[in-house]
Amino acid sequence: MKKKGYGFHAGGNGTKKNLQFVGVNGGYETTSSEDSSCEESDSDTETEGRAGDVEPEQAGRENKGASSGQKSEDDDDGDGDDAGQEESAGAAPCSEHQAHRCKPSEDFLAACQLLSEHLPEIRSTSNKHLQPVLASISQEWFQVSSHKCSSPEVVAEYLEVLGDIQPQLLEAVVNLPDRNGNTALHYSVSHSNFPVAKLLLDTGMCCLDLQNRAGYTAVMLTPLAVPETRQDMEVVMRLLKEGDVNLRAAQGGQTALMLGVSHDRDDMVRALLCCQADVNLQDEEGSTALMLACRQGNADMVRLLLAQPGCRVTLTDKGGNSALSLAHGDIAALLRAHVELSPSLAV
């Protein structure tokens, strides 16, 4: 079905690879249940409790393994996996799941129609009668839009239907959070499903700076995603330009730039810097992106950051450490040379 006025055009480039993120409790999650098919993920507890715990590693302060704190239920499947590790690109397609959910169900349509008549009440405190309606919409919407193998064609169909009922309804559903505060955009970015991310952005109604329960926006997750084509990278740049790249996470105060540096993603770090990422922002412990690069001994990343106008080498964290005090060997020499050439930045 093709409606006028909303410009949703489905398209895709096959099964996407997916990084493994850690959950709100700090442990690494696996996505093994999604490797085989989406039929296994048809419950909203799977959708909201698994990929819903989208939160990057506390970069620069934890080893790339399981946290010593609480773990999510799925940590036993692979706690020690690197956060930059990709899953196999050969995951089985979700054809049966997609065939089952090619179009909105009658229950979904009825719930949407009812919700469209009560949209002002969503934000009120006395909307208990809307909770079953929202739950019904949420379950089907996240099943369709928020898996690694979510079909752009199917998502486009849902967006068309929602916009046809009421534009305000489309806006509400596109930005609908699950119980962990993640929207469909959080999921599509974390799964590197950029065709779906583009469809969501094309609505013109995505709130890119919505933070999930851990305080991460979809934009902040972008540095950990895996763009595989030029079209994917165009979506990445659009996310970074339209969202706030300098927001800090509620837990730890990390920025997108810090996450990119911590995971040695020079491609994403370059993209962030092109989109005005602030190289001197500090997290809750006072660490900067430059300090993280020095801790990791990544000389190329250090050079990239030092090349940014105004990069301050002598900022200190709460422990009194500067990038220079954390650096060794060639990296320390790079920093000293930078200070000598730019003495004004040594304050």
UniProtKB/TrEMBL annotation:
Keywords, sorted A to Z: ANK repeat
InterPro entries: Ankyrin_rpt, Ankyrin_rpt-contain_sf, KANK1-4
Keyword Disulfide bond in annotation: no
Organism: Ficedula albicollis
Skewed-composition ranges (Basic and acidic residues): 47-64
Region ranges (Disordered): 1-98
GO CC entries: cytoplasm; cytoskeleton
BP term (GO), one: negative regulation of actin filament polymerization
The protein's name in its UniProt record: Uncharacterized protein
Matches recorded under Gene3D superfamilies: Ankyrin repeat-containing domain
Compositional bias ranges of the Acidic residues kind: 36-46, 73-85
One protein family per Pfam: Ank_4
Record-linked SUPFAM superfamilies: Ankyrin repeat (SSF48403)
ANK repeats: 180-204, 252-284, 285-306
